[in-house]
Amino acid sequence: MRHTKISSKPSKPHRPEARRFMPPAHTLLLLGVLSSVTRWIVLVALASGVLLAVILLGASSARWRSLLLQDVTGAEQAPDDGARPPRIGLVSGHRGSDSGAVCPDGLTEAQLNSSHAQRIAGLLRAQGFLVDILDEFDPRLEGYRAAALVSIHADSCTYINDFATGFKVARAAHRPPGRDDHLVECLVKHYAEATGLRFHANSITRDMTHYHTFREIDPNTPAVIIETGFMYLDRDVLTRHADRVARGIANGILCFLQGNESLSH
Ligand SMILES: [Zn+2]
After folding, report:
1. Nearest to residue 92, comparing CAs of 120, 69, 68?
2. Which of 20, 46, 98, 177 is the most exposed place for a label (fewest CB within 10 A)?
3. Sign of the C-alpha dihedral, residues 187, 232, 208, 127?
4. Does residue 106 have a pLDDT over 60?
5. How many angstroms is it from 99 CA to the middle of ligand 1?
């Protein structure tokens, strides 16, 4: 059986010859009025577009400001460099300077810190924050302004004793109490929760509380240093569960900036 093509081209409708004619004067007048009305409509639409954009921009920066002002320590205004959204600084411990602690198999603290810093930055950027990953002696640290700064380090890879496990978070010894303490509290809570590691409050050294970065940054930038764990006994968490390490630190920073909002997984 032959299939008949259903959609054969429809025959072209007969097109009558275009007639040439001069529109009457009142039609010309109407056309003129219509074109100027159209011009006005376009102008008004453009102007409202610009107005809307300005309103939206203002609203989003107000939202960030209100998030920052939720700082429970009652600071008048969270320090920021004026950029919206807020800026977070992460010092990738030892980067650009030296290897830090080294394990017998060649794993270095600098590598570990860098991998943690990258992961934390990824999580925070996904939340809309601006994140700077800074070298140990980064020239940008001089007068550095941000909503928070966390320097990421890890403890030695040599076996000390069975108690050399856990993490530490410290603030600068020379700065007044307040927001640095709040950042410490938030990091301790969320880091312990995410990694299951214990907080080693008693083994915080002078190296941590007199850490060089604390003297370089802007005095209004809240800052802490974290030792994420001991590379010998806590190696498994630090290497194979780096996602937990990153989540703990990112959540600690969010806790400080936004109350208790945290990333689930
Ligand atoms: Zn270190």
Report:
1. 120
2. 20
3. negative
4. yes
5. 8
Domain count, the chain: 1
Distance CA 175, CA 222 (A): 10
Picking from 237, 132, 220, 229, the residue whose alpha carbon sits closest to that of residue 183 is 220
Tokens of 231: 């590379």
Q: What is the pLDDT of residues 147-159, one digit of tens each?
A: 999 999 999 999 9
Query: Cα(148) to centroid of ligand 1, in Å?
Result: 19
From the CA of 215, how far away is ligand 1's center (Å)? 17
Distance 214 CA to ligand 1 centre (A): 15
Q: Are 252 and 186 in contact (CB under 8 A)?
A: yes
- The reply to whether 131 falls in a domain is yes
Q: Report d(CA 256, CA 160) in Å as an integer.
A: 33
Q: For the whole model, what pTM was predicted?
A: 0.69
250: containing domain: 87-258
Tell me if 231 is assigned to some domain: yes
pLDDT tens for 178-234 read: 999 999 999 999 999 999 999 988 889 888 999 999 999 999 999 999 999 999 999
Starting at the edge strand found earlier in the chain, the sheet holding 168-170 runs 130-134, 87-92, 148-155, 223-230, 168-170
Nearest to 243 by CA among 122, 90, 95, 105: 122
Strand (E) or helix (H) holding 216: helix 212-216
Residue 154 lies in a domain: yes
Average pLDDT, the chain: 80
Report which of 93, 252, 259, 262 is spatially closest to residue 183, judged by C-alpha positions.
Answer: 252
The domain that contains 163 carries what CATH number?
3.40.630.40
Distinct helix (H) and strand (E) counts, the chain: 7, 5
